[in-house]
Amino acid sequence: MKKILLVSWLFLLSASSLMAQTSYLDQAFTDYFRRSHGWTAGDATISILLPDGRSVWLFGDSFIDHYDSTDNSLPCLFQVRNCFTVQDTDDLNSMTTYIDYSKNGIEQTYFKISSVGNTVYWPGHGFVVQDTLFVFLQKFLGFSKI
Predict the structure, then answer these.
(1) Is residue 6 included in any domain, yes or no?
(2) Phi/psi zone of residue 66: left (φ > 0), alpha (ψ -120 to 50 degrees), beta?
(3) Is residue 26 in a domain?
(4) How far apart, in whole angstroms, are the C-alpha atoms of residue 35 and residue 39?
(5) Which of 2, 25, 48, 68 has its CA 20 to 30 A from that of 127?
(6) Is residue 27 within 8 Å of residue 104, measured between CB atoms?
């Protein structure tokens, strides 16, 4: 019993030292994602480095455009269930948003099988092999259209 308590105490001591690390706001990095057009906000953020140095950013539920610069607000509900952006290598402020521009509203969601309906795909992660990007998507059923 004493050995178990000692191990537990050492684990707590090491875990508390990890939590004591400091953090800071990287304003330059934050500003890359202050957008007023294209992708403006979202969740499930995942980045993947491409062989040419560009970065792909995968997002789950996202706000696209509709940014109100007068009060720095976004609409109450997101516009798409997922999308991605590609960040330029030379100009990190330059990002291109990819959604299905042939559709309207929530149907502009990029990763989908036919119509969005009540099936949602959220990015899990991805990787690159030679010139091909592979993206893992998590499939959720039973969502209502918004």
Answers:
(1) no
(2) left
(3) no
(4) 7
(5) 25
(6) no
d(CA 61, CA 35) in angstroms, rounded, equals: 16
- Measured between alpha carbons, how far is residue 51 from residues 44, 47, 89, 118, 128 in Å? 23, 13, 11, 35, 8
Q: How many independent structural domains does the chain possess?
A: 1
80, β-bridge pairs:
62
Query: What is the widest separation between alpha-carbon atoms in the chain?
Result: 66
Strand stretches in the chain, DSSP E:
39-42, 46-49, 55-59, 62-64, 83-87, 95-98, 119-129, 132-141
Residue 22 within a domain: no
Tens digits of residue pLDDT in 50-95: 999 999 999 999 998 878 878 888 877 888 999 999 999 999 999 9
Contact 53, 111 (CB under 8 A): no
Q: Are 109 and 116 in contact (CB under 8 A)?
A: yes
- Helix, strand, or coil (residue 131): coil
Q: pLDDT digit string (tens) for 32-61?
A: 888 888 888 888 899 999 999 999 999 999
- Phi then psi for 75, rounded to 5 degrees? -60, 165
Task: Give the residue numbers spanning the domain of 120.
Answer: 36-141
